[in-house]
Amino acid sequence: MGTQQPRERTGAGESGESTGRTGTGEPGGTGRRALLGAAVLGASATVLGLPGAAAAADRTAAAGRGGGLKGLPVPTIIGHRGASGYRPEHTFGSYELALDMGADIVEAGDLVPTKDGHLVCRHEPEIGGTTDVADHPEFVGRRTTKTLDGVPTTGWFTEDFTLAELKTLRATERIPANRPHNTLYNGRWEIPTFEEVLTWQDEQTRKRGRQVWIYPELKHPTYFRALGLGLEERVAALLRRHGKDKKNSPVILQSFEPTSVRRMRRLVGNPLVVLLSGADTRPYDFVATGDPRTVADLVTPAGLREIASYAQGIGPTLDLVVPKDADGNLGRPSTLVRDAHAAGLILHPYTVRNENPFLPPAFRKGTAPDAYGDVFGLFQAYFATGIDGIFTDNADTGLLARTDFLRH
Question: Contacts from 141-145 at CB under 8 Å and sequence distance 24+?
Answer without folding.
Answer: none
